Amino acid sequence: MKKKDSKTNLLDHSEAKVKLLGNYLSIYLNVLSRSPINKIYLFDLFCGEGIYEDGGKGSPMIILETIKNHYFSNNKTCPKIEILFNDVGNSDIEVEKLKIDRVKGFARKIFIPDTVKDYYTKIDYNELITKVIGRIARLESNERALIFIDPWGYKEINPNDLKQLLSCNKAEILLFLPIYFMSRFVEKSRDEEFKGGRAIRKFIQGLFGEMENLDTIKNQKDFIFKIQEQFKEFLGIKYVDTFKIERENNNWFCLFFFTTNKRGFEKMVQTKWTIDKKQGAEFKQGDEVVLDLFTEIEISSYDKKLINFIKVNGGATNFQLADFGYENNFLPTHTKKILDGVKEQLEIISNDNKPARGYYLGDESRNVTIKFK
Asked: What is the fold, at CATH topology level, of the domain defined by 12-296?
């Protein structure tokens, strides 16, 4: 059987990626449409082909259909939205056409509310990202932006660009990185004579400062976790989430989510863990499933971090524990599973003079403190 070309077909791993984008955007629109936010800007900087040979729908179609569905599900109302779709070069499917013209043609077949304005450009990323950074810096207090960056590779990605986009505290970013290709060259790239490592060396140095600041990589998932933790420090934010996607034969990709907004982050973590029926943090090739919870806990040492957090602070409230879980990319239900494992050692103290029969994680109506006996 002939292997599908990822440039002309929407493979399973790409479908999982745009599914997460669509699910999050749906929640994003519902939350912001009920807030004081007056206008939303969406940027799709590598929008691709729009629709692929196998009928798969790329990010522009998912974005526009999500907006259409929001409009009809909310009494034909929609926030003011400006969308920029961008990509350069000719289509790999219809070589005589530009990618962006192809996307525009498909987009014109989808209903777009009057409050939504869509724009189509063919600007090189390195030029465009400067323009987007400038536009984001001018956002008003009642405006927000969501930026989707899905490059073919990673050599264009500069961590400092992400820092500038987030510096106004009004933007969120979804960044897709080919972890498999990046991790292959990390160790070799510690040798500056290795010419094939220029791109990954530039990325690592931009994020970690120096190659030696990145510990030895054990495997691809370990690489993802190390990047995630360093992004938190480099960007100066607590809220960085990941969704791991396997293409084939243990070739992993990762969708990173960055925000300075606590509520937006909680919504993304919830979306990630409910994107399939088995709940997970990654999409595994040939499966509807995504990883089992305990592998994820083991990689991040979340169980040890949680127990240490309670001990060091001499106890923690149910609100603090729920926040701590989200900041480490886990839901209250996951935190509960870990607490259940040490339940006999715990003491739950009610702060509202009512009987305490549980942890009440994320329950805003109860206030308890959980300590080790």
From this structure: Rossmann fold (3.40.50)
